[in-house]
Every structure is written in structure tokens, then in C-alpha cells.
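Q: Okay, next protein. This is Aldehyde dehydrogenase domain-containing protein from Pinguiococcus pyrenoidosus. I've checked the sequence twice, so it should be correct. Can you predict the 3D structure?
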Amino acid sequence: ELQILWKFADFPPFLASMRRFMRAHELPRHLRATGCFHSTDISAEVAQRYRSASESQRAWAETPLSHRKAVVTRFGEILKSKCADLAEILTKDMGKPLAAAKGEISATPGRIKYFVEHVEKVTRDEVVRKSDKREERLVWEPLGVVACISAWNYPYFVGSNVYVPALLTGNSVLYKPSEHSLESGKRMEETLLEAGLPQGVFQCVAGGPSAGEALLSQPIDGLFFTGSVKTGMAIKRALVHRNIPVQLELGGKDAAYVMPDLKQSDGNLAYIHNAAESLGDGAMYNTGQGCCSIERIYVHEDVYEPFVDKLVDVVSKFRVGNPMQEGVQLGPLCLSTAPDFLERQIADAVAGGATVLCGGSKMDGNFFQPTVLVNVDQGMSVMQDESFGPIVCVSRVSSDDAAIEMMNDSQYGLTAAVYGMDRIRAERILEKVQTGTAYFNCCDWVSPYLPWTGRQNSGIGGTCGESGIRAFVRPKAYHFRSV
């Protein structure tokens, strides 16, 4: 039987150090477990901003695509050159470790490059049929003024997946960053203006829920939201009578399956250990605050014990602390309510027979110990409700079919991963799993080349890929006939 492990070395001195640091520095409020940066709510100005966006959109749409591409490319170049400063702002905004913040911002120009290189192909006018007397042509036109209500966990990735293709296709954007990453949102607007974007084409609408409500009341031509299921469904209901494109990128309860063929006949555990390391990182990266973070792992009984042993070893070694310090891997949770929610999930699971192998408790401030749970039941909250924190649950299964059934037992359908040696077998499994993205021997990754979509309560519509560009244009059919 697996032994309960606690590997938080020098834990009391660490807490004392953090308390001294918090007293000595003006830290963002979320580091004291009380919320986030406050900023002036400008919801009263939203109507004026919409008018400005509408007026500027017409001229922007008439701007040659080559110029729009040049502006957006320059935006990516400035992000790269200012990465260090912007990363520090992002870390202070929402608590992401500084190294991870730098990684997000430095990788954003590569995503921008995809959209710049593919927008012309996707939106090119096309003569679909032509004869001596008739011509039929397909033209793609911008939606107009689009609203983007974005997320705090990956503001540069999530935001640019929407506003970059929107701008390239000739739309103007009203961008509402999360109230937990306001300063980063403002820097995006400043950087786009520095890159040469005309005034009014991209505007940051800063504020809380009231600003979002004011945004929805404007005659926008499309709404692109990333956030919780609850808020996404409320937005959907609010806009149901408008007949405009609505895209909702919501939550996930992402699952993985570890196949038995990772077990080698000579007893070598390398492949099993590699899977545990990959899935441990996929569960804990960004302190588990990702819609595609791994939260459920189903492990075939033939490899269960060595996999769990290694996973606990990996997870218990993650370094928790001040996100501004080098070497820290897990920062504070962004939301002040998150630690209590995670503790309730764990307490409920333990009461139902689950076992905590490492972690399991909140720490001073808004920190939470990286946690592995086993002996979990499929009906527990920790197996059904999105945790959005550094918790991963492991369940033993006896067959591929059992794993498929349990992976599909969810209100969500964002991603699923299979780890093993036999790709054909893995593909057959993944074909039966109801998710928008499927991984083999990898997880927790979004490629700009492929659509990012969900099933069920993970959302409607999608970003990235060619479809993520076409989401910001609408077709117009031309019929020409000679006299």
C-alpha cells in the first residue's frame, strides 16, 4: 500500500520568510489572499468607446491587408523586446511565477506569426464558378466591432488568440481583460498603439462585471468570451435575441489515461516515469490554473503502483513561493476564494474514502500545497467539478473501455490525453473520447495551427487554426451576369 508522503522541506521557515516579505513590500492584494489589483471602473464610458470603435473600424477595414499585417507583426516584436517588464506586470497582476510569465509573453509572437502568415489564404476572395455570361464570387467581410472578454490565467495567449485574427481581418476590438489582470490588459493596448494601430481600433475596457454588462448592451457584431461556465451561460442567455456570433471558451476537467504497454518486460520503468513527469507538469503548471490542466488520471492496473509512486515524487517536489523569486514553480492562487474551495473538495473526497498522498492543505496567504489524491470515486466533486488549482486525482482502471467510460463521464469535453507505446491503439481510444482536443504522450498544449474547441460545457466555437481566423469574417456571395 502506498505511504502518505509529505515533502515540503523547511516548510515553517518558508512561511515565516513569506510573511516578512509581504510586510516589507507593497504586493498585489491577491498575494495576501484578499483579491486583486483595483482599478477605476470605466463602465460608464463603454458606450462612448463603442462609438469610437465603430467609427475607426470602417477605415481600418479599408486599410490594405499588408499594412494590417505589418502593424500586428510589429506588435509581436515589441512584446518580445519588452518581455521582462511585461512579465513582471503579469506576475504582479495574477501571481504567475515570473519564469512562466516570461514564457507566455515570449511565446506569443510565434502565435501571432501563424495568424499573420495564414490570414490572406483563409480570407482570400474566390471565384467559385465562371462562364461566358456568369460569375459567382465569394468574398469575406469583417464582422465589425467585436467584444473580447478575456481570462486572467493566460491573458496574452487567450487574448491574442482572439484580438490578433480580429484585427488582421479588419475588425475593431473592445477588449475587456479580467479584473484580475487589468494592468496587463492596459499594456496590450499601449503596445498595439506603439506598433502603429490607429486610435480606437483596439480599446481596453477595464472594470469588473458591470463593465462586462455594459459591453454586452452595446450593438456589437460578435462576442468572444473566455471564463467560467456560469458566466458563459449568462452571456449566452443575454445575447440569444441578438443573432450575432457568440464564442464561449469555458472550463475543463481534463483527463488522461496511462496504458499498460508502458510496462517493459525487463522491468525498466523509464516510460512510466516519463508519463508521470509529463502529467505531473500538465497538472501543476500555472498552479493548476488552466482550462486544459490535467485533473484526472486513469491508470491501468498493470502500471498503477510505479506510476503513482513517481507522480507523487514529481508533484511533491514542486517549489511553492513568492512568484517573483527565481526557481519558484507554483505561485499563489489568483482568486481569494480558491484555497477554501480546494480544501472543501479534498475534505469531501477524504470523507468518501479518498487518500491524500501529498499536499492537501492551504498555506498562509493564497497558496496551496501541490496535491495528489488516490482512491477517488467518480461521483466526487473533485472528479466532476473543475478544481482550477494544484490538485490531481488518480484512479485505477482494468481496461481501455473502463478508461474511456470514465473519461467521458464529465460535463466538460475540452481535452484528453493517452500515454502509451501503441499509437494505433491510442488513436482508437481517443476517437471515442468526447473532447475537442486529443493528445498522445503529451498534454496541456494549445497550437495556433489547430482549432481549440470544446464539447458540452467546455464551450461553443473555437480559436486558433484556420477556423479561428474565419470566426471573425462572414461570407458575402456575389452573382454577376453580363448583359
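A: Here is a summary of the prediction. The CA atoms of residues 371 and 391 lie 5 Å apart. The chain has two domains: 43-250+458-481, 252-447.
Q: Noted. On to the next one.
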